[in-house]
Amino acid sequence: MKVAKFGGSSVASASQLRKVADIIKSDPDRRAVVVSAPGKRSGDDTKVTDMLIALGEAYIRGESYQIPLENVIDRFKSITQELQLSDQILLEIEQEVELVLSKDYENEFKIDAIKAIGEDSLAKVLSAYLQSIGIDATYLNPKEAGIIVSDEPGSAQIEEESFEQLYKIRERKEIVVIPGFFGYTKDGKLVTFSRGGSDITGSIVAAGLQADIYENFTDVDSVFCVNPTIVDNPKEITALTYKEMRELSYAGFTVFHDEALIPAFKASIPVCIKNTNNPNGLGTIIVAQKETGDNPVVGIASDSGFVSLYVGKYLMNRELGFGRRLLNILEDEHISFEHTPSGIDDISVIIRESQLTPAKEEKIMQRIKEELKPDTVYIERDLCLVMVVGEGMDSTVGVAHKATEAFSKNGINLEMINQGSSEVSMMFGIKAADEKKAVQSLYRAFFE
Ligand code: ASP
């Protein structure tokens, strides 16, 4: 049994949906299908989810939401008309918007329920289309499927009991089409995962159904070993471990949501990334274990938008609880940290800049000065993290040397180095302005 998930670009238009139907038809093992909302048809297009967010935000500001609503309706209309389906769904979208906005919910729950309309409507459209071409398919709402999630709007987590419920889908004779991106809390409220979260639904469904494989259809033939907008025609990765993929998607590989690996990983279900526009291509397979090839490095990722909070104090290593008290101050401001490279008298805490508002920053700096009495404390901005990833690094001598040599040859100043405890990745902190040059020089060093 296979679970197939189709991303936003795969369901962006009627012609893409025809390809999706061909893929479903071509393999009777594809029993459960998970879909995103229509994404971009071309570079300057707008995703339906973004239109729906604009709608919700207009409502919250007390402004008219007619224009974003019309945009959503037009987008679905172009799909239903071309596929010669009834336009009942257009009416249902309008009714759903009015119903959600009239409910006595906090705004964040309303926004989630509005955001989910994209996936929900597309799943209905796809199942109607499959039926119209003679495929026995049915729409299945996540509540009915048993996807129960935590009460965290915009960043739901799956509840364990969901998996047992989902297993019952195996008894169904017809193909089920499930909208991705959302589930329901125990008290029945709709809550979405974080952005890009249809990948998470796909993984949850595959784990629940104990599928043999989770196929994730997107718009690239495979995962590239480096961002193709930074390096032209980079090498493709044929096989990756869950750990390697997790590290790469953490630092900027957007082809697969980093949280989506967990359910598949726990249930030991291989994940295959494939291209809707070239379904016969091999794709990239993500598994628990694989043979290490000649190259200990499988990929290089980079992500900017980080800051480093540096704290220095003489004899820090002797001061019991210093690190805990520092991290407590961050916790009190609801800031999670990414890495904490440290020395005997220094510690740096790497944080995503988006978490640090000016007000929070002021408060944190003040508390550190008062409570920890450091010799030095400052924030360094515009940092980029570059990750060199590969399970094989563990047993290979000289990987760090090769990387730092590439940096020094290209005049890139290293702000910090952090070798993960697992030795699956090596992290380099550099100035964001050097990101491209750094990634290109590492690519040359490891892949050319
Ligand atoms: N439609 C949602 C988003 O754009 C979820 C997804 O596509 O996976 O974030």
Any descriptors?
globular; 38% helix; 5-stranded antiparallel beta sheet; VC0802-like; Carbamate kinase; 448 residues; binds aspartic acid; alpha/beta; single chain; 15 helices
Q: Which ligands appear in the coordinates?
A: aspartic acid
Question: SS-based structural class?
Answer: alpha/beta
How many strand elements? Answer: 17
Radius of gyration (Å): 24 Å
Distance between the termini: 39 Å
Per CATH, the superfamily of the largest domain is: Acetylglutamate kinase-like
Biggest β-sheet description: 8 strands, mixed
How many helical stretches? 15
CATH level 3 topology of the largest domain: Carbamate kinase
Q: What CATH first level of the largest domain would be assigned?
A: Alpha Beta
Proportion of residues in helical segments: 25-40%
Cα shape: globular
Overall description:
The chain has helices at residues 14-25, 48-60, 66-82, 88-102, 107-115, 117-132, 142-145, 162-167, 198-208, 242-250, 261-266, 322-332, 358-372, 399-409, 435-447, and strands spanning 2-6, 30-35, 137-139, 175-179, 182-184, 190-192, 213-218, 223-224, 236-237, 239-241, 271-275, 284-287, 299-312, 346-352, 376-389, 416-419, 425-431. 45% of the residues are buried. It starts with a strand and ends with a helix. The chain is built from 15 helices and 17 strands. The chain is 38% helix and 21% strand. By secondary structure, the protein is an alpha/beta fold. The mean pLDDT is 95. The longest helix has 17 residues, at 66-82. The chain folds into 2 domains: 2-287, Carbamate kinase (3-Layer(aba) Sandwich); 299-447, VC0802-like. α4 runs antiparallel to α6, α12 (322-332) packs antiparallel against α13 (358-372) and α14 (399-409) crosses α15. It has an 8-stranded mixed beta sheet with strand order 3-4-2-1-7-11-12-10, sandwiched between helices. A 5-stranded antiparallel beta sheet has the order 14-13-15-17-16. The protein binds aspartic acid (ASP). Aspartic acid binds at residues 8, 36-37, 47, 49, 118, 180-181, 195-199. Aspartic acid (ASP) is lined by residues 8, 36-37, 47, 49, 118, 180-181, 195-199.
